[in-house]
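Q: I'm writing up a methods section and want to include an example of the input and output format. Could you take the sequence below and give the corresponding predicted structure tokens, formatted cleanly so I can copy it straight into the document?
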Amino acid sequence: MTNTLNNASLRTGRSFDLGKMNLRQLWIAYLTYPTILLYFSLIVVGIALTAHFFAGWATTLLAAGIVIPVYPLSWYLLHRYVLHGDALYKSPVTAGLWKRIHFDHHQDPHLLDVLFGAPFTTLPTIAAITGPIGWLIGGPGAACAAFTMGVTITCIYEFFHCIQHLNYKPKSAWIQRMKARHVLHHFHDEDGNYGITSFTIDRIFGSYYVDAKARPRSPTVFNLGYDLTQAQRYPWVMKLTGSPPRDRPDGARSDTPRQSADKSL
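A: Here is the clean output for your methods example:
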């Protein structure tokens, strides 16, 4: 566990490699990870501010409750049309942002360091979505409640996202199915199964698929369309990476075992 958890440099190898960790090691890494500790701190502060500007129980619960269905819809739209789009890597201004928040994760899906969203982009996004909802419902107190719920859901999402990339078979059938669908997104066809804990929005928008038989394997599943041709036209991500985009992560196993496991779920 020591070698897995203490390799802090991305340049010297994989740090926090989920493909080599068990559930206990994940809990240790998750509960001590700076980004998660920041989110936990913001939840405490958010609860305190909600109490300070208290808008009443009904208003507070309404503001927090509305965030629950809005969050997965917002995540789906951002994930599908922004993170999997090509606009960000085509500009030198936003190429580094796209590389950090999603490209690196698809290049090596087991790397915990780039699995968590960057707080400098995640938190403003949560605030931009939840803040106005809460404010319109009940002013600053309800806005704090909505934001706090957004950060709480983010922590839940991030943990289950880790489980989906962990070298571990969950005991729960629901989590097994959830993990299998997300593995397909990373190792079979990235143009589908955009959800994390629920794929209801995928079903509504027609991007849900259940196994590798449902569609052919995507040649861009690891590079999101940023292949060598695109890298030559828009070189900024490649320059930041220090190497051409990869067609599969380092140390990746063959697809057959993964797809067989997916079919069994």
